[in-house]
């Protein structure tokens, strides 16, 4: 496993180095993942037969038709998920009130030991289901969350609290069920440390676009005087604000704006009541650095123009192809001074990248 992991990682390094060679970046920093047991999320269909039920996934055969694949263990998932899978399944099998028309089981684990299991059904969940689910959650010391069409049953919480360590300091993060979180917690810690170490502490301010639940926001706040973070999704904004308060951080404001909306506000093209209600004055900030972690589609043209006005840009990318396209614009005004590869998903084509750019 170790030798095959190193080979696949070397292949990624060669591919990314060749793809970005035209930008003349510095030597690529490479951050490895455990070869197995690295994934903190797992989603399985529950497959019912006449006399049995089991976890299942699907794969396509040579005719591109879906085939059911039974899953008894899931090597890429965290050990806590693998330990829970058979115990939970046995309990479900022996409890008709929990197994009846059960469609899917999703696991959300943490390094901190918190575990949430979402059970999804093709039927309405009643008080009997709730009583049995609550008893099972207490027996297994996990959180259980029930869902069906138009119905959500939260027994205790619909989230876990993860604890990540960055440069010796621990941060607590609320991670809400079905909201985006980094699936590889070990590599996530590498990413957070790399981003923090990419810049020296300064008395100036940071702008962050696409902040999510504040994953990068919290540790980055230690390097800057103040941070203005933007995010559009309400659930992520709520989680970010919870995380800021939980970690007793007092130099972060969160604005519920998309990157495009922030660009309009920053340029004075449009006023937003959401900024006024949150008592956020963009003009009061002394921005030096901007941090972006955009979706796979990358950054739109107007936001790229905005980034070019900052002295430093920290760009975390989940798609090398859109990063490559965006760098064609950004390297017209900036040069790459740090370049990193994070192996978030071993044995797949997927690559996470980090780039620090400074104004020429």
UniProtKB/TrEMBL annotation:
SUPFAM superfamilies: S-adenosyl-L-methionine-dependent methyltransferases. It comes from the Bacteria. Coiled coil: none annotated. One of its GO terms (molecular function) is tRNA (uracil(54)-C5)-methyltransferase activity, S-adenosyl methionine-dependent. Its EC number is 2.1.1.35. Keywords: Methyltransferase, S-adenosyl-L-methionine, Transferase, tRNA processing. The active site is at 318, 318 (nucleophile), 352 (proton acceptor). One of its GO terms (biological process) is methylation. It catalyses: uridine(54) in tRNA + S-adenosyl-L-methionine = 5-methyluridine(54) in tRNA + S-adenosyl-L-homocysteine + H(+); uridine(341) in tmRNA + S-adenosyl-L-methionine = 5-methyluridine(341) in tmRNA + S-adenosyl-L-homocysteine + H(+). S-adenosyl-L-methionine binds at residues 182, 210, 215, 231, 293. Gene3D superfamilies: 2.40.50.1070, Vaccinia Virus protein VP39 (3.40.50.150). Transmembrane segments: none annotated. It is an enzyme of class 2 (transferase). Dual-specificity methyltransferase that catalyzes the formation of 5-methyluridine at position 54 (m5U54) in all tRNAs, and that of position 341 (m5U341) in tmRNA (transfer-mRNA). Belongs to the class I-like SAM-binding methyltransferase superfamily. RNA M5U methyltransferase family. TrmA subfamily. HAMAP family: RNA_methyltr_TrmA (MF_01011). This is tRNA/tmRNA (uracil-C(5))-methyltransferase. It comes from Acinetobacter chinensis. The lineage of its organism: Bacteria, Pseudomonadati, Pseudomonadota, Gammaproteobacteria, Moraxellales. The gene is trmA.
């Amino acid at each position: 496993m170790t030798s095959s992991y190193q080979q696949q990682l070397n292949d990624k390094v060669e591919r990314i180095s060749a793809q970005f060679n035209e930008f003349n970046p510095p030597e690529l920093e490479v951050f490895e993942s455990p070869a197995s047991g690295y994934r903190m999320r797992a989603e399985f269909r529950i497959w019912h037969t006449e006399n049995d039920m089991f976890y299942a996934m699907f794969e396509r055969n040579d005719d591109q038709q879906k085939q059911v694949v039974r899953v008894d263990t899931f090597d890429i998932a965290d050990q806590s998920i693998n330990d829970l899978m058979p115990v939970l399944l046995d309990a479900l099998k022996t409890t008709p009130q929990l197994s009846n028309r059960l469609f899917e089981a999703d696991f959300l684990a943490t390094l901190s030991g918190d575990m949430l299991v979402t059970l999804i059904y093709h039927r309405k969940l009643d008080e009997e289901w709730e009583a049995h689910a609550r008893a099972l959650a207490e027996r297994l010391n996990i959180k259980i969350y029930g869902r069906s069409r138009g119905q959500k049953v939260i027994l205790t919480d619909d989230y876990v609290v993860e604890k990540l360590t960055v440069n010796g300091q621990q941060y607590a993060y609320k991670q809400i069920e079905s909201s985006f979180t980094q699936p590889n917690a070990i590599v996530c810690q590498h990413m957070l440390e790399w981003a923090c170490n990419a810049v020296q502490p300064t008395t100036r301010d940071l702008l962050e676009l696409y902040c999510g639940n504040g994953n990068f926001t919290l540790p980055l706040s230690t390097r800057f005087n103040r941070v203005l973070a933007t995010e559009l999704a309400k659930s992520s904004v709520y989680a970010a604000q919870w995380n800021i308060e939980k970690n007793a951080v007092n130099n972060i404001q969160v604005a519920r704006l998309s990157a495009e909306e922030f660009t309009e506000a920053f340029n004075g093209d449009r006023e937003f009541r959401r900024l006024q209600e949150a008592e956020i004055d963009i003009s009061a900030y002394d921005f030096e650095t901007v941090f972006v972690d955009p979706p796979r589609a990358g950054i739109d043209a107007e936001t790229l123009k905005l980034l070019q006005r900052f002295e430093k840009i920290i760009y975390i990318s989940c798609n090398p192809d859109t990063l490559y396209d965006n760098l064609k614009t950004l390297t017209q005004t900036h040069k790459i001074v740090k370049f990193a590869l994070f192996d978030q998903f071993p044995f797949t084509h997927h690559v996470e990248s980090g780039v620090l750019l400074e104004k020429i």
